[in-house]
Amino acid sequence: MPNDNRYAELRENYQMSGLLEADALDDPFEQFHRWFDDVLAAGIVEGNAMSLATVSATGEPDVRIVLLKALDQRGFSFFTNYESRKGKHLAANATAAICFHWKELERQVRATGTVEKVSREESEIYFNQRPRISQIGAWASAQSSVIEGRETLESARRLHEQRFDGQSVPMPEFWGGYLLRPKEIEFWQGRPGRLHDRLHYHRQSDNTWRISRLSP
Ligand SMILES: Cc1cc2nc3c(=O)[nH]c(=O)nc-3n(C[C@H](O)[C@H](O)[C@H](O)COP(=O)(O)O)c2cc1C
Q1: pTM of the predicted model over 0.90
Q2: Which of 46, 123, 160, 213 is the most exposed place for a label (fewest CB within 10 A)?
């Protein structure tokens, strides 16, 4: 193992922009859309990738990347296998945290909230838009289960290609979307000298949002 200082020596002094209360929109979803416009304008690849943290039935956390596929006034949606490890976590603990890092913009957004499955109709609308190869992939992968080897996947794919030959691929029962309804959303903008801007939106009982500034 190299005995060097590679990790400790990496540091950036963030100075691209700031996030002041006067500039922040009252609605965090609108604020998110505005920052996502910047993500697209900056040409960031997979700017919809987010870390998703969940907790198992026995209280063990885990985290992985998923892709944000929709954002509306209800919250953040992503799609996955309901029988995967994350699916089992969400069945046991219907709460999660998500985090986006757009390093090119020196920004982070994180949110916590409750999670529920989206309706089968809504999942199907998305599933039917996916490339056929991904639809077949959903059938071929018992996500998060241990498999013998690569060939297990390839043969499962062939099997399902034959099964659905000449017809459209239906959405599996075990696959679909989840919606994270946020209670809290925080927008972080890096600033010089580690004195970053953090604006924290907290949902109120009347569904309006209270904005607080957090110390960096
Ligand atoms: C960029 C990127 C995007 C991903 N998008 C998804 C996704 O939208 N849905 C999904 O189920 N897995 C996605 N994955 C794979 C997950 O990170 C993870 O490996 C998989 O969902 C199994 O996680 P689990 O065992 O915790 O359930 C993505 C991985 C990467 C690196």
Answers
A1: yes
A2: 46
